[in-house]
Amino acid sequence: MFAYIVRRVLTTIPLLLIALYLVHVGVSYTTDPLASLRQCLPRCQDGYDIVVEQYELDKSIWVRPFTWASNAIQGDLGTSEAYQQQPVTDVLRTRGWNTMLIAVPAFLLSAILGVLLSVYSARRPYSKGDYFFTGLSFIGLALPTFVLGLMLQNTLGVQLNNWFGIKPFYTSTKHTESFSAFLSSVTLPILTLAFVSIAEQSRFGRASMLEVINSDFVRTARAKGISERRVVWRHALRNAMIPLVTLWALTFSALLSGSVVTESIFAWPGLGSAFLTALSKPDLDLMMGITIVAAILAIGFNLIADITYGVLDPRIRYD
Fold it and tell me: What domain range includes position 47?
């Protein structure tokens, strides 16, 4: 197992470097930090020269990523033009924490409910309850995130106040005046992120459970007189979770990297909204910082998923 982990890490390092290089080149081609300054030349010549020096715009696009990479290795990701010249590491730390505040609860909620709905639907296939949850899952998969977010904002944030004179949830920004205010501001973004994930996981989990629950080793366990509860939750579910682990790794890394749509709808100060701000500026250093965070999270959680396969199913070996 240790040798496998070392091989995976060593093979992903070149992939990460190539991805970052291509992203840097692509962003440099499609953005122009000097666009706004050219309009005021020669009056803003000093500012123009500072931006040219900061981003090395006098050098070839194909050479600039190497300078950025050498600074990044030393922990210097540059400064953010979009956030008053703050160090990119500080922006990532602050915004990343805010993203975690909605990503972690949304993931835990979707993982727990996804497993429960998968087991329920697999044990009662084609029942009324199965059809009901299947319908909800299809709605969750088909409903765009921005539509769901706006519906929750309007229904739970606005209409409840009009109908009953209460406003239990804030519809935008992060509120920290009190713990109850924080919960009111964080609830709707969490529900928006969790609903779509629950729909995906319940579908994958149901299909996997149906396949496992009719397999030979499950029938053997039942023939030995093991209780149905233990057969389902200890034997069948453990093997059926392998596809879910893959989906969890992809989902959790994406949530921690920042949900652009959800954070924009609720004006949540996380990595997703920061990326949009950096893209509109444009702020190359901040975009690259968020990109490297997203890449490391994706690679790291996929490695964790591969290791978890061997824990769930002893037949899986990494030789």
Answer: 2-76
